[in-house]
Write a structure and sequence with these properties.
Elements (H helix, E strand, L loop, with lengths): L19 E3 L7 H8 L5 E2 L21 E3 L4 E3 L7 H10 L8 E5 L7 H8 L6 E6 L2 H14 L7 H7 L2 H4 L4 H11 L5 E5 H6 L1 H12 L20 E2 L2 H10 L20 H18 L2 E2 L8 H14 L3 H5 L3 H5 L2
Parallel strand pairs: 1-5, 1-6, 2-5, 6-7
Antiparallel strand pairs: 3-4, 8-9
Helix pairs in contact: 3-7
Length: 328
């Protein structure tokens, strides 16, 4: 497969690029790994996910594009239109990390082959770290993320029935990694398991640091105990799904002003309404700390059967025993 990309997607200032990227999978511990690595005094990682390398991939970042109803035109992230603006936006993310080993995390990259193609084309050899989680459980966690974000308005089972790709595609690790290995050598990619990070975070982080070429001596024992992004759940799932159904179109308000190509002015009222709806929703149906309900056994069996077939050969591809752990 060709690795040729538009010349505009090749940075003219490779020294400003990150040294490593935590590229997903989504809901597989990337936030926790980020938080632990961020405690290392020799590392710099921007707080937010960036999504630069596949920002024009509509299927992965549908909320990075905006339709201007007045002009009847789309505003979207476009490297060919203004590469200077795009690169300045990205390089600025690492301006504070000039004297550090720089990294970023964006959970869409693993599932986006175009990101691998573009990263491989850079003059700088950027290392990639991917985390994989039991695929059915990752889908279930992903559902609750989408519920909180205002994107899904049906139950987990109904979402699987009517829009399965929304949840399933980010768990298709084998075909995703195969695409990355076509562009980058295996020694430039580190794959770890969410389950190993949970079971022994110190050992797993030490493996990652060895891959990145940094010492773990500057970590404290407390650093390894960090659990980031502890998710809260709506007090009433039914009320939250109703809110999502009525106000679904306001789901991308978070990105209105944080991208190189920003939303039109007409979106300001939309942003104000989104904030008002969110504020009222939190008062009527707040997000609280409570245990995630168990997945229905029949649904777990249904998903496991699917992923057993789709992920066969993953252990041979990665050198891990993920498949055998997940499908005992």
């Amino acid at each position: 497969m060709s690795t040729e990309v538009s010349k505009n997607w090749i940075s003219k200032e490779p020294e400003k690029l990150p040294d490593f990227i935590i590229g997903g999978a989504m809901k597989s511990g990337t936030s926790t790994l980020h938080a632990i690595l961020d405690r290392h005094p020799d590392l710099y990682i921007p707080e937010e996910e960036i999504g630069f390398w596949d920002c024009d991939n509509i299927s992965e970042h549908f909320d990075f594009s905006f339709y201007d109803k007045g002009r009847k035109e789309w505003i979207f992230q476009d490297m060919e239109k203004d590469p200077t603006a795009m690169w300045n936006w990205y390089h600025t993310k690492f301006a504070q990390g000039e004297n550090f080993l720089k990294g970023e995390d964006s959970t869409s990259y693993l599932a986006s082959a175009i990101a691998g193609k573009r990263i491989a084309a850079q003059q700088k050899k950027i290392k990639l770290v991917f985390l994989l989680r039991q695929p059915s459980r990752r889908c279930y966690s992903h559902y609750f993320h989408l519920l909180r974000a205002g994107i899904v308005s049906t139950t987990f089972e109904k979402t699987l029935e009517y829009n399965p790709n929304l949840l399933l595609k980010r768990s298709l690790y084998k075909e995703q990694l195969e695409a990355w290995y076509r562009y980058l050598p295996k020694e430039q990619i580190k794959v770890i398991l969410f389950e190993d990070l949970v079971a022994d975070s110190k050992k797993t982080v030490q493996e990652v640091c060895g891959f990145l070429g940094i010492s773990t001596d500057k970590f404290s024992e407390e650093d390894y105990k960090i659990h980031a992004n502890k998710a809260k759940l709506p007090l009433s799932f039914g009320l939250h799904r109703l809110k999502n159904r009525l106000f679904r179109s306001y789901g991308n308000s978070f990105y209105l002003s944080s991208l190189p190509f920003k939303a039109p002015k007409s979106y300001k009222n939309r942003m104000l309404l989104a904030k008002a709806v969110t504020r009222i929703s939190k008062m009527v149906n707040p997000l609280v700390e409570k245990k995630t309900p168990s997945m229905r056994p029949t649904t777990k069996e249904f998903l496991d059967n699917y992923f057993k077939r789709e992920l066969k050969g993953l252990d041979e591809l990665t050198g891990l025993d993920a498949y055998s752990k997940w499908f005992k």
